Input
Amino acid sequence: MRRSTLFVVLMTSVVGFGLFQLKYEVMKLEGQHKTIHHSLKKSEEAISILNAEWSHLTSPERLQKLADKHLEIVPVSGKQLVSLRQVTGECEANQTVGIQNRFALDQLVSNVLDDEGRAALSLDDILGGIDSE
Output
């Protein structure tokens, strides 16, 4: 045999073996591709189902029915609306009354308790003082 023929046979064998390896590598990659594609389709279907569920759960009509059923909310009436001046005026008045009540309570406690925190007056003394007023 000639050297050129031997070279051609050897090169053909190497190329054939390379193509054989390449074919099986491509088949393996196609299998991975199918698995990934199938997983992707399942994920897209799950997302589609979840979007439909979300649309149903957040529909305004459904939420209104649930609010009517479970919450006791009534529409706002005109009597419930006040001006900002009314609100701030009531707060200032409540603070003044609160300070006055606190002062009266402090005086009462100081009259009832002595310096060491013991009762300086008996219950009869306190009630007697209230009855005489």
The CA atoms of residues 108 and 126 lie 10 Å apart. The first helix runs from residue 3 to 57.
